[in-house]
Amino acid sequence: MNTPLRLAYSTLFPVTTELQLSPDLVEFLKSGGRAILFGEDGTEYATGIMHPDRIRDETAETWRAATDEVRAIAGLALLALDADISAVHRLHRLTAALPTLSEGKAMTDEAFTAKIHAMAHDARQLGINLVLSPTADVVAKDNPWLAGRTLGDDFAEVSRLVSAYVRGVKRAGIGSTLKHFPGNPVITGLPATQDARIPMTMEALRPYLAPFAAGIEAGVDAVLLSPAIFDAVTPPQPGSISPDLINLLRQELAFSGLVITSDLDHRSTLGNQSLEQIVVEALIAGADLLLVSPAAVPHLRLLARAIEKAVDDGRLPLERLLAASAAVDRVSS
């Protein structure tokens, strides 16, 4: 039976950097959790290069054992990872190679789509059913977070590559994710550790929606929200908990799929609130799946209980929690 507590667990999206499930993650899955992000550590994220020992120790067999274990406990499950051009490809040498950015720009749409399909096909064989890619951000200037990690600085070219990427993943039968909505052209710092802001009006930000619109038109399954604080909304608010920005995604861009937060324990999103407060705020704002870092994994029960309490006291409508859980199910199946 889907009690509010089990539904709450189903909206949590913890990160693990290891294939071996910790006792906390096993308990999470037994309690109703059914989404895990297989992530990377800080150095791997920054460099886009997996550690040599990870490349040595992680094999197709160990990946299949890990994803099979999750599904043996949880049943229907959403298992995700990054598969980025210009940034992190979590499966390193275990899939067909992604093209470099320069190679991708020189390819026809069909050739690029075929390359992405080959990668996604191999990821699916390892038990993955969602990639947190492609990056739809277009960087303008002054961006210590995303500089060198995107698909370029030309709206039309990035939109073309985003669309082709989404089509390639879809052809392989798994889901793709646009990030980091609504775009982060200029940012004042690193969202994980600083109060990073996007100091732009909505009018100035609007052209940067183009690659997101292109990916949605191509049939993307999920959109991941930015962790940064946006001056484009009043009062300024982090993207992952902004009703205005989620409404922009839902209404103006007509996106009906899964809405995922960035790490809710990032400094920019958390601010002075507790993580228990932030997970509830994200659901109320309209997010479906709540990403939390490995540091939060020992506290998943507290987060689920906070969501359950918000339903009990009327702050979070049960219908909103049901809709979020159903959105996770649609991508998991």
Concise structural overview:
The protein has 333 residues and is α/β, with parallel strands linked by helices. Helix content is 44%, strand content 11%.
Instruction: Look at the structure and give the mean pLDDT.
Output: 97
Strand content: 5-15%
Sheet with the most strands, sense and barrel status: 5 strands, parallel
The computed structural class is alpha/beta
Overall outline: globular
The top-level CATH class is: Alpha Beta
CATH topology: TIM Barrel
How many domains? The number is 1
Topology as H/E string? HEHEHHHEHHEHEEHHEEEHEHHEHH
CATH architectural group: Alpha-Beta Barrel
The CATH superfamily bears the name: Glycoside hydrolase, family 3, N-terminal domain
Which percent range fits the helix content?
40-55%
Total strand count, please? 11
Radius of gyration (Å): 18 Å
Spatial order of the strands forming the largest sheet? 4-3-2-1-11
Q: What distance separates the N and C termini?
A: 19 Å
Low-confidence stretches: none
H/I helix tally: 15
Please provide a written account of the structure.
Helix 1 (4-10) crosses helix 14 (300-312), helix 1 (4-10) crosses helix 15 (318-332) and helix 13 crosses helix 14 (300-312). Helix content is 44%, strand content 11%. Helix 2 links the parallel strand 1 (12-16) and strand 2. The longest helix is centred in the middle third of the chain and has 17 residues, at 109-125. The protein has a single domain, classed as Alpha-Beta Barrel (TIM Barrel), CATH 3.20.20. The chain has 15 helices and eleven strands. The protein has 333 residues and is an alpha/beta fold. A five-stranded parallel beta sheet has the order 4-3-2-1-11. It has a three-stranded parallel beta sheet with strand order 5-7-10. The protein has a three-stranded mixed beta sheet with strand order 6-8-9, with no helix packed on it. The protein has helices at residues 4-10, 23-30, 42-47, 52-57, 60-74, 101-106, 109-125, 155-171, 202-205, 210-217, 243-252, 267-270, 275-285, 300-312, 318-332, and strands at residues 12-16, 35-38, 78-81, 130-131, 177-181, 197-198, 222-225, 229-230, 237-238, 258-260, 290-292. The model has no long low-confidence stretch (mean pLDDT 97). It is an enzyme of class 3 (hydrolase). GO terms for molecular function: beta-N-acetylhexosaminidase activity.
